[in-house]
Amino acid sequence: MIVELLSVPAIILILGALILPLIPERLRSTAFVTFPVIALAMIWTMPEGNLLQAPFASYELELLAVDGLSRIFGIIFALITVIGGIYAFHIKDLGQQSSALAYAGGALGVTFAGDFFTLFIFWEIMAAASSYLIWARETEESAKAGMRYLLVHIFGGGLLFTGILLHLANGGSLYIDSIEPAYTAANIFMLLGVALNTAVPPLHAWLADAYPKATITGAVFMCALTTKSAVYVMIRLFPGWDILIWVGVVMAIYGTIYALLANDIREILAYSIISQIGYMVTAIGIGSELALNGATAHAFNHIIYKSLLFMVAGAVIHAAGTSKLSELGGLAKKMPLILGLYMVGALSISGMPLLNGFVSKTMISGALGDAHLEWPILLLLIATIGTFLHTGLKLPYFTWFNEKKKDFELSDIPTNMKVAMGIGAAFCILLGVAPQLLYSQLPFPTDFQPFSVYNFVEMTQILVLAFAGFWFLKNHMNVSNTISLDTDWFYRRPAAIVRTIFVDFPNNLFGLAETVTLSLANKLSAISKNPARVLIPSFAMSGREVKSDGFTASMSAALSFILFAFIVAALVVLL
Amino acid sequence: MKNWHWTVLGILLIASLILEFTYLADYASHWWNHVPAFYALWGGLGCATLIFVTKGLGKFFILSDEDYYDR
Predict the structure, then answer these.
(1) What is the mean pLDDT of residues A173-193?
(2) How far B54 CA lies from chain A's nearest CA (Å)?
(3) Alpha-carbon distance values, A132 to A103, A121, A213 (Å)
(4) Looking at the complex, does the CB of residue A369 fall below 8 Å from at least one CB of chain B?
(5) What does the pLDDT read at residue A110?
């Protein structure tokens, strides 16, 4: 059994996380990359089917359920862990390396889980391991954000687990299968639990709160794994739930608006994740084969270009030491390579033809067209315009082109970071010009053709006019020293009052009780030194000294006699 | 922005319009395909709307000082 467990890719990564501390420091980064490479090779070569069962109580758990959908998600999760490992090759922080591996193992475990228990266990491993990637930044801000992140995810895990238990109690199967659209308590809890990790507003605030505060390398793993594994679970469980069509549209617009307002470069990218996942959620809501293929393909592409963007943002922070647009500017001549790599990712996410975002976005709009959902198409186009505005124009313009506000002493960017970004950019271009490489791996066979005249005309007109609009209106965009209030307001703002009521008040009450008890005890002990002074004041006051710690001679004689009698009696009884 | 940048963008736009009026002249899968240069209009209007709506929302309640949660 133990040996068989090694055929599970998730176990390989988690085992890697445990072995890593035993490996000498200079080999650790190489080992970090090796484990996901092994996992990737395993996923690539595994046959389809339920490959490994494990008995648990009266249940038979499915640890390795492989089909077209889980395989493509497994491939991208392992691949991005390799790229992230290269990006973090220079890092000598064991905690970060181990938790990143365990985190990726959690994502792979969720992907290949065939039953709800296995899914839930790996779901929680992901939440716990990823929290450390925020704390490892070691600032006061990230310590607090990491704790909020962990608490929100524990809450989300609780929602999911409640749903699973209700589902089982109602006679539902332990094994994962798509759920018919019915709003029972079990389904609603499960949907909410998954929606929290998918960052559906209003349950999304953890994402934009935590990602900008994570470590430079940690954020690369985070932007790829948590939300997309939840998208995978949503494709599995809730395909064709109509409500998701509009939920996705709202997400896409909501994320765009906040990304347009943000000042921190990684916050822009974080809100843009929410917006992009909106496309996937909409496609899941349609539920047709083309739509689910589109959601899968978009998740795949999104992981590549979004991690590329996070890597570049990390490189800017590494070099310049700040992530705020209000401080950056005028860096284009100093980091042309980084700028070029960024633009590949930014134009991909904006849906520029011949880059990878285009080949999956057109698939989703094709599925929307087939389903005659015309307003969602138009509204998602607005989100596309917004994406081009914030990720494609605002962020690069105010980081690299606008007049400089400060003189930066740029630190060198390690070669391994550049290599990782280069690999990401190469995949963006490769899948953009040869989409069949991706389409052939999708869960349903497809003959979809993205390169139509119509799609070229559509994207060209949209992007050119959006660019012109940005150029003339760019001074209306926010790049001031501000933060955006979001739904995390509801648990951050009342924190002071909650602290007063539930922490400070009981603390003070117990403190007061302690003081009172101690002073009472002090007084009592003072009295017991000489009780006669209180009990018979006339006796004590008459001037005679009372010896409380000694006996009079006659009393001593009486006591000695009693003791002597006792010893004699004892001797008589015993002998 | 140099002049040649604008020229390239102008050429791209004109090329897309020519394609629209020749290749896609009787293409009608959505109601808006009857509106000439619809995507250019949607792009321009959408961009302006987004910028001003977010600016308004930001002023109205979203944007706040950086020490908002520490106060």
Answers:
(1) 95
(2) 6
(3) 10, 18, 12
(4) yes
(5) 97
Tell whether the torsion through CA atoms of A489, A204, A213 and A351 is positive or negative: negative
Residues 6+ apart with CB under 8 A from A276: A252, A255, A298, A302, A306, A349, A387
Give which of A100, A131, A128, A132 is closest to A14, Cα–Cα: A100
* Interface with chain A: mutation pick from B5, B63, B70, B71, highest number of A CBs within 10 Å: B63
Length of chain B, please?
71
pLDDT of A458: 93
**Residues 2-61, chain B, touching A (beta carbon < 8 A):** 9, 12-13, 15-17, 19-20, 23-24, 27, 29-32, 37, 39-44, 46-55, 57-58, 61
Where b means 16+ CB within 10 Å and e means fewer, A490-503 reads ebbeeeeeeeeeee
pLDDT at position A543: 55
A518-554 tens-digit pLDDT: 999 999 988 887 777 777 777 665 555 555 556 677 7
> Which helix (H) or strand (E) covers residue A485, if one does?
none
* pLDDT greater than 80 at residue A187: yes
Kind and range of the H or E run holding A54 = strand A53-56
Within an 8 Å CB–CB cutoff, is residue A377 touching chain B? yes
- Cross-chain Cβ contact A481/B66 below 8 Å: yes
Taking contacts as CB-CB distances below 8 angstroms, the residues of chain A near B1 are 471
Verify whether the Cβ–Cβ distance A369 to B24 is below 8 Å. Answer: no
- How far apart are alpha carbons A326 and A404 in whole angstroms? 10
Task: Mark yes or no for CB contact B58/A462 under 8 Å.
Answer: no
| Average pLDDT of span A96-101 | 96
Q: Which 3 state secondary structure label does DSSP give A189?
A: helix
Give how far A34 is from chain B: nearest CA, Å: 42
Closest residue on chain A to B1 (Cα): A471
Which among B9, B31, B50 has the least Cβ separation from residue A386? B50
| Residue A539: HSE in the Cβ half-sphere, 13 Å Cα cutoff | 8
State which residue of chain B sits closest to A491, comparing Cα positions: B69
Query: The pTM is what?
Result: 0.90
pLDDT tens string, chain B, 71 residues long: the values are 788 999 999 999 999 999 998 988 777 788 898 888 999 999 999 999 999 999 999 999 999 998 898 87
The structure tokens listed for A413 are 């960017």
- The answer to whether the beta carbons of residues A172 and A113 sit under 8 Å apart is no
- Picking from A419-433, A497-511, A525-539, B5-19, which range would have the lowest pLDDT averaged per residue? A525-539
A141-A143-A145-A148 Cα dihedral, nearest 10 degrees: -150
Residue A477, chain B, CB below 8 Å: the answer is: yes
